[in-house]
Amino acid sequence: MIHVKVLGSGCSNCKRLEAEARAALDEAGIPYELTKVTEMSDIMAYNILSTPGLVINEKVVSAGRIPKRQQIMDWAREAEMA
After folding, report:
1. What CATH number does residue 69 fall under?
2. Scanning 14, 19, 48, 49, which has the fewest C-beta atoms within 10 Å of its C-beta?
3. Looking at the 3D structure of the chain, how many domains does it have?
4. CA distance 48 to 60
5. Is the full-model pTM beyond 0.70?
6. Per-residue model confidence as pLDDT tens digits over 31-67
7. pLDDT confidence of 74, banded at 50, 70, 90?
8. What residue numbers bound the domain in which 24 lies?
9. Residue 57 zone, left/alpha/beta (φ > 0; ψ -120 to 50; rest)
């Protein structure tokens, strides 16, 4: 199981990223646990300059954009293999 975090205050882009991440992981059939991180102090701990951010197994894979679904699947597969 991989651990996924969506970093952001709850804005529309943060919600879109969460939906895309869930869709990508469900489509890939990868078991996951998704957590939303909304506290600014917690987000700042990941050293990102803009939200939304995507973290997989404590590694920041994206910040400030909504990656394509295929890219999220690729990152998740890499994390699953590690």
Report:
1. 3.40.30.10
2. 49
3. 1
4. 8
5. yes
6. 999 999 999 999 999 999 999 999 999 999 999 999 9
7. very high
8. 2-81
9. left
Q: What's the rounded Cα separation, in Å, for the pair 25 and 18?
A: 11
3-class SS at 82? coil
- Output the six-digit token pair for 40: 């600014």
Nearest partner of 58 among 71, 70, 75, 41, judged by Cα: 75
**Is the Cα dihedral 10, 13, 15, 20 positive or negative?**
negative
DSSP state of 1: -
Task: Give me the pLDDT at residue 62, please.
Answer: 98
What span, in angstroms and rounded, lies between the C-alpha atoms of 75 and 55? 10
What distance in Å separates the CA atoms of residue 28 and residue 26, rounded to the nearest whole number? 5
Q: Please state, in angstroms and rounded to a whole number, the distance separating the CA atoms of residues 11 and 79.
A: 27
Residue 32 is predicted with a pLDDT of 98
**pLDDT band at 2; cut points 50, 70, 90:** very high
